[in-house]
Amino acid sequence: MTIVYDDHDDTATDVPVRRIRFTINGAKKVAEVEPRLLLAHLIRRGLGLTGTHMGCDTTNCGACTVLVDGRAVKSCTMLAVQVDGHQIETVEGLATASELHPLQEGFKEEHGLQCGFCTPGMMMAAKALLDANPDPNEEDIRWALSGNLCRCTGYQNIVKSVLWAAAKLRPPAEPAADESQPPAPDESQPQAAGNGDGSQQ
Ligand code: FES
Ligand code: FES
Predict the structure, then answer these.
(1) What is the pTM of this model?
(2) What is 82-148 written as a DSSP string?
(3) Is there an atom of ligand 2 within 6 Å of 22 CB?
(4) 60 lines ligand 1 (CB under 6 A)
(5) Do 10 and 46 meet the contact criterion of CB atoms below 8 Å apart?
(6) Which run of H or E residues covers position 68?
(7) pLDDT tens across 10-48, in order?
(8) In angstroms, what is the span from residue 65 Cα to ligand 2's centroid?
(9) Distance CA 161, CA 68 (A)
(10) Which residue's CA is the closest to the ligand 2 atom numbered 1?
(11) Which residues contact 62 (CB under 8 A, 6 or more apart)?
């Protein structure tokens, strides 16, 4: 990132930069950053990953939410140097080349977005929730998304979208045992040798 500043009295010195290494959406990266650079700016301007949005720049809206080592963080509130040695996930890492992530499908199926500005942050906060709790109830979802603001949807369809994704991500339940059938014989126990008429000798 280029920063231009006034050098009124020839006393300006070079702005120090620090080399950091991190992984983003599975790709290893090295960057030289000023210590004051925000993580959101590294992601958007340095890496060109503009799916991470910035709505407020003051930790209120959650549009800039990404995952750092699996935890949802507001990237406008974290410095880029703080991700040195860590793993970052952004909304661009959700889909594969051929398939949407179930969260993306859920937002589509349940109409969880209108303008879409809050959506990347909502999805990343929801991903952190589902990774930790695959079977959340509505209250769990509302709590997990309580740091993310949406000015369009009224939230109801966002909650439904996350429930949709959770259901798709859960492995199918085992079929219940049929209690109307007698239990199968325990083949680990030795069977008594019979004489064919059911009596024992
Ligand atoms: Fe980070 Fe709003 S831009 S919380
Ligand atoms: Fe517009 Fe959420 S869909 S702000």
Answers:
(1) 0.82
(2) GGTT-EEE-GGGTS-SS---HHHHHHHHTT--SS-SSHHHHHHHHHHHHHH-SS--HHHHHHHTTT-
(3) no
(4) yes
(5) no
(6) strand 65-68
(7) 666 667 899 999 999 999 999 999 999 999 999 999 999
(8) 14
(9) 23
(10) 115
(11) 55, 74, 118, 121, 122, 125, 145, 147, 148, 149
From the list 7, 5, 36, 42, the residue with the least C-alpha distance to 21 is: 42
* 53: CB partners within 8 A, 6+ apart: 63, 64, 117, 118, 120, 121
Q: What is the pLDDT of residues 147-185, one digit of tens each?
A: 999 999 999 999 999 999 999 999 887 777 766 666 666
Show the domains of the chain with their CATH numbers: 18-93 (3.10.20.30), 102-169 (1.10.150.120)
- At residue 42, what is the residue type? L
